[in-house]
Amino acid sequence: MHSPTLVILAGILAALVTTVFYAVWYFNKGIPGLRLWTLSFFCASVFCASLLMRDHVPEVLLVMLTQASIAMVAYFCFLGSRAYMGRASVPHGYAASAIAAVMAAAAYFTVVQPQMGIRFALAGSVSGVCFLLTAHTLARGGFRNVPARYLFAIVASLHGLFLLLRPLLFKLAAPDAGNGADAGMVALLSQFVVLEATLSLVLMAFGALMLTNEYITRELRHLAEVDPLTDVFNRRAFLTLLEKAISSADRTQSGLSVLAIDLDHFKKVNDTWGHKGGDDVLRHFVGLATSCLRNEDVMGRMGGEEFAIFLPNASSEGTRAIAERLRAMVASQPVATDRGPIGLTVSIGATQYLPGDSSDALLQRADEAMYLAKEHGRNRVEALALSRPS
Ligand SMILES: Nc1nc2c(ncn2[C@@H]2O[C@H](COP(=O)(O)OP(=O)(O)OP(=O)(O)O)[C@@H](O)[C@H]2O)c(=O)[nH]1
After folding, report:
1. Could you tell me the EC number(s) of this protein (predicted)?
2. With CB atoms 3.0 to 4.6 Å apart as the test, which of 131, 133, 180, 347 could cross-link to 373 if both were Cys?
3. What is the pLDDT of residue 177?
């Protein structure tokens, strides 16, 4: 296909992708990386537009514009990937200096010592390195959690490698571009370069949209499962996980313990310190509780100032020890506030899964034990059916 036609097609695609990304970003500004990917595709549109203005703009200006825009396509793509992966941005000063140096070199090799090959290699190497860095950034986090990163990382690395090897390819295919046969080969390779860039653009846009979609899905799942104040599972999610833990305990004949925890005299905390003070206490308690749990232990907020924790594979002694450690920790570590420390105690009911228990029965028994702790004076641990019958 005619090269200018391919460039027009690539330009239309880049502009369309930019518009779609801008619209998605406009309504979802919190998605990390999306703004930078939008800028990257915008620079790709500028690059295509500048190629099409070839006959109407002074050569040196055109070369500087194309070199800067192609470098920025890759740089913004790299920054977007870092943002998506939650990594810190890189200092823009280095990038600005690098792009300025590339533009200066491009001007030098256009006006002072015209060398198209060197300009070509320069543009390819800067953006090639940025695309390889993009692939490395996306791959480093581990593929298992976010499988869509496969596509983006593979396309970015192949595109980066192609950009780096491109001058070599031209050299091998057409060692003497002045000769007629080699000039034909150069034209063919140029068409392939535009095709490769267009295909990479489409695939990377696809990858970025998949990552965006994955982020939104993850956020929605988080909102549906997690209590916004304390960041532990809400009642519904906790019960679902408890059901699964019960099935697993049945299957593997392993232990499963449940703690029901209620903050003592929490109404008084609210009355004395205000609702905000009460919220701080809830968060403080959750922080303490999670610090003394193992990775496999699961905590949920069952409502108000009531929490529950289930402990897979915990023995009765282990369960008692964790409950007692948590009780003592809460009692000894008041919440520090500007107006002084807020003292806090908890009542804990502990129980263990007995064959045939439903999740409701198990939680109810833990609750009964917790009410016993309240009745017996609060700031204590009570247990029901904690030892497994032999
Ligand atoms: N700050 C804050 N308070 C809450 C929240 N949810 C429930 N509460 C308060 O928790 C308090 C629970 O009080 P009660 O059920 O009377 O229990 P208590 O004062 O802890 O007394 P005991 O449980 O018998 O020790 C109420 O004042 C609720 O308003 C919340 O998300 N934030």
Report:
1. 2.7.7.65
2. 347
3. 54
> Which of 304, 328, 374, 320 is CA-nearest to residue 352?
320
340: alpha, beta or left? (left if phi > 0; alpha if psi -120 to 50): left
Kindly report the protein residue whose alpha carbon is nearest to atom 24 of ligand 1.
265
Number of H helices, E strands in the chain: 11, 6
Q: What's the pLDDT tens digit per position in 194-248?
A: 888 889 999 999 999 999 988 898 899 999 999 999 999 999 999 999 999 999 9
> For a pocket test of ligand 1, which of 266, 273, 301 has the largest count of ligand atoms closer than 8 A to its C-beta?
266
Q: Whose CA is nearest to atom 16 of ligand 1?
A: 267
Q: Are 134 and 149 in contact (CB under 8 A)?
A: no
Q: Which of 46, 42, 45 is nearest to 22 (CA)?
A: 42
**Does the beta carbon of 279 sit less than 6 angstroms from any atom of ligand 1?**
yes
> What angle is formed at CA 131 by the lines to CA 129 and CA 134, rounded to 5 degrees?
110
Compute, in angstroms, the gap from residue 236 CA to the centroid of ligand 1.
Answer: 20
Is the beta carbon of 305 within 6 A of some atom in ligand 1? yes
Quote the CA–CA distance of 37 and 28 in Å, as a whole number.
13
Ligand 1 center–CA 269 separation, angstroms: 8
Query: Which residue is closest in CA terms to ligand 1's atom 29?
Result: 267
Whether domain 233-384 has CATH 3.40.50.2300: no
Better pLDDT: 180 or 11: 11
